[in-house]
Amino acid sequence: MGDCAIPTDYGTADVLRPTVSERRVIWSQIIAVNVNNIMVLANGMVAGYPTVLIPSLYDEKINSQSSAITEDQISWIGPIGFTCALLGCLLSGIITQPLGRTRALRLGCPFLVAAWLVFLFANEMWQIYLALCLGGLTSSLVEAPIIAYKAEVSQPHLRGMFSGTTSLFSVIGVLVQFILGTFLHWRTVAAISSSFPLLTFVFLFFIPESPHWLIMRGRKETAHKSLAWLRGWTTLDEVEAEFRTLCGRCDTEQEAEASSSREAVRGSMWKKYMEKRFLWPLSLVCFIFFLSHFNGSCTLQTYAANILTTMEAPVDQFYATVMLGITEVVGCFLSLFVVRYCGKRVMGMATLCAVGICVVAVGAYAFIIDMPYLKLDEVCETFLITPSAWIPVCLILLLSFIAHTGIRVLPWILLGEIFPHETRAVGCGIGSASYYLFIFISDKLIIVMVNAMTIFGVYQLYAAISVVGALIMHFGLPETEGKDLDDVIDHFSEVSKLDNRVKKRE
User: Fold this and answer.
1) What is the phi/psi pair of residue 188, to 5°?
2) How confident is the model over 431-474, as pLDDT tens digits?
3) Is 272 left (phi over 0), alpha (psi -120 to 50) or beta?
């Protein structure tokens, strides 16, 4: 392992070589990341499909012999997908670590295609349930390899932006599904949806595996070629400095891991997951996932139409859903630039505070018009078009936009960069599982909370959570934007300490 010691005369890992143009270096990473993003878009389509499926199944029979779909059968569509997604996230890291990032992702593609084909040819409700299980499980199984891959192949000054595309392509997938479902039959939507994981499967053969993972597996020659591909399809000599730096760091980690293995007692395979360097970043990212779900923006995806109906807003359910989807896409797109120029700390704290102001305004509006509780079983047939009637629409859209510009995207960016190399895949899997868990809790509690505290009270609670969360984030979240991946890991391992400045590329 001494053949890859860290040289003392090389600069940082992301210094461009003079014979390779910066544009070429960036484009090689863009291509690699966006092959993964096709699968992220496919996952978003899985998440958005129940919105298309449920009203369609209400209106028709699955086949000519079957009876009409019952309300009880419909009620299982959401929970089945969620339960399987939660399980898939927990298994994701365990599968990703031994298989590798691209291989684990490629393994999931055929199963997602199979799920869409089951939807396409389903003649019984149990087949619909099977497809939901398969789709939910597969889409969550590939989250850890996607997140880990983006963090490991990106240069430090691009990592935040590339990691942020996970949320962007996910909400694009949901929006695409809403649009397809508006104009096409649900079976046709399933057939079209199957093409995205199929495309991902094919394109994955043309991008390299993560150099980090290859080095940790002792495949240094392949890792060297992979790094050369990712840095502008250049020669091995051009990436020699960065490659030797990666090797030296990975060799140090492997020696430390081997030493601890020899000294550890039986059952120590779980020891690395009990260490502070794993539990600290895991607790941090789970806390930020909590903040992203309990600030009033998460429940909009489920109850936006009910909230607007309650506040007598002049917009119907279809337009509300589409406007909300477009707002989320625009917010996620802008977050790619916000994180690069402002950093993750400012992005998270500023959007939390802004979200807090929005939810205070929403709650105050509900209080002023004397609407203490949600109307869950009413549809507004006529609209009173007055200037004040548009206030809740503007507030809800602004709340969604601000949240997706920062706090809703932030945990997905952090997820791939704050864990040590050997526990990154498992950390990404557990962190993703917390995302689904908090979705379930926030959606289930909102009705109970509103009935107990009124809309005004709940939204003031959301505001308080946002402000307190921003304060905790100020003291507990280091600035990782532009920093080398190893420096981020060293901070959480208490080897060194990061400052709170965004590192600009020299």
Assistant:
1) -65, -40
2) 888 888 888 888 778 888 888 888 899 999 999 999 999 999 99
3) alpha
- Residue 94 near residue 41, CB atoms below 8 Å: no
Q: Round to whole Å and give the CA distance between 494 and 497.
A: 7
**Looking at beta carbons, which pairs linking 277-281 to residues 24 or more positions away fall under 8 Å?**
277/420, 277/489, 277/492, 277/493, 277/494, 278/419, 278/420, 278/423, 278/427, 280/492, 281/414, 281/418, 281/419, 281/427, 281/492
- 244 token code pair: 């030797």
In this structure, are residues 425 and 219 in contact, taking their beta carbons and an 8 Å threshold? no
pLDDT in tens, 40-91: 999 999 988 887 787 777 666 665 555 566 666 766 776 787 778 888 888 8
pTM metric for this prediction: 0.80
C-alpha 261/C-alpha 244 separation (Å) is 25
Q: What is the spatial distance between Cα 322 and Cα 52, in angstroms, rounded to a whole number? A: 13
- Say how far apart CA 421 and CA 431 lie, in whole Å: 15
Return the HEC string of 136-158. Answer: HHHHHHCHHHHHHHHHHHCCHHH
Q: How far apart are the C-alpha atoms of 257 and 203, rounded to whole Å?
A: 35
Of 497, 481, 499, the residue nearest 489 (C-alpha): 497
- Residue by residue, what is the 3-state secondary structure of 84-113? HHHHHHHHHHHHHHHHCHHHHHHHHHHHHH
- Do 421 and 252 meet the contact criterion of CB atoms below 8 Å apart? no
| Closest to 127 in 3D by CA, of 191, 196, 205, 73 | 73
Q: Which among 228, 204, 233 has a CA at the least distance from the CA of 24? A: 233
Contact indicator for 315, 304 with CB cutoff of 8 Å: no
Query: Could you identify the residue written with the tokens 């502070």?
Result: 276
pLDDT of residue 17: 45
Where do runs of H (alpha helix) occur along 154-294?
Answer: 156-183, 186-193, 195-203, 211-216, 220-230, 240-263, 276-293
CA pair distance 440, 479, nearest whole angstrom: 30
Q: What pLDDT does 7 receive? A: 36
